[in-house]
Description:
Elements: H1 3-72, E1 86-91, E2 94-102, E3 107-108, H2 116-128, H3 136-143, H4 183-189, E4 193-194, E5 202-203, H5 209-215, H6 221-230, H7 236-243, E6 252-253, E7 258-267, E8 270-280, E9 286-295
Parallel strand pairs: 3-4, 5-6
Antiparallel strand pairs: 1-2, 2-7, 7-8, 8-9
Amino acid sequence: MALSSIRGQRGLALLMAMLIVTIATTIAVSIIYEEKFTIRKTGHIQAMDRAGLYAVGLEDWARIYLREDREESDVDSLDEYWASGIPGLPIEGGYLTGYLQDEQGKFNLNQLPLSELEVTRFRRLCDNLGVDDRFIPALMDWIDEDFDIRYPDGMEENYESYRVANREMVDISELRLVHNVTPEIYEKLEPHITALPTPTTLNVNTMSETIFQSLGEEGDVKRFLEERENDPFASIEEFIERLQLPYEVDGLSVDTRFFRAYGQVVQGEQVFNLTSLVYRDDGGKTLVLNRTLGQY
C-alpha cells in the first residue's frame, strides 16, 4: 500500500476520532446543563411551595388575631393587636411579613345604588380628592341589575368590546372598565374604596380623614383624629356626642366584619405575595372569601 494512502487513512481515522470526541463532549455538556437546570427548577418549585405554605400561615395568623380580638371586644379600632402587623420574621432563606387592613374603613362601591346618602358621600369623596365625578351614573349602571340608563352620563350596553356587568363588583379593579374612569381617577380613588359582597357600614374608628370628610362638610377633621387617638369611640352615639356632628350618621359603626389580609414571603430573589378577604361574624368565626397568591 502506498505511503500516501496509509497517511490518508490515518488522517481520516484521526478526524473521525476527533469528531466522536466532540460529539461525546457536546452530549456530556448538554446532560450536565440539563441536570443543573432540572436541579434549579426543582429547587425553585420547592421554594415556591414553601413560600405558599408560609403565606397561608400568615392568613391563619390573621384569622387567629381576628377571632381573639372579637372575644376581647365588640369594638374595632387602630390601637388593637390586629392592626399592628408582623414586622418581619426570619425564615429559611429569607423573611415574611404581613398586616391586616379594615375594609370597612373604606367606601364600599357596592353601596351606591342603596341610597341617595351613599351617592352624596361618594360625590363628596370624589370632590375632596379632585376627581371628576361624571363617571358615577355609569358606575351605578355597572352595579345595578337593570338595563335602564341613568342620566346624565349613564352607560349600559354601549361598551365596544365588553358588556356591562349588571351585578355587584367583586374587586375594585373593575372600576377601570367603567365609562369615564381614567387611570388618574382610579389611582386617586384606589386607597379609599373597596368592593364588599354585602351592605356594610363605615367604621369610624378605622376610617381615614379623607373618608371622614366625605360624611359631611361640617366635620372637624383635627378634632376627629385627636378624639379617636385619645380614646376610640365605643358607640356611634358617643361619636356624635363627642364631635357634636350636625349631619346624618346613618351607615356608620364602631365594629367591622370584613378585613383584608396582606402577606409577603421573601426567599432569596423570589417574592411571594398574598392578599385575602376575610369575613368575621359576630361570634368571631372567620371565613376566607377570596384569596390571591402571586409571585413577583
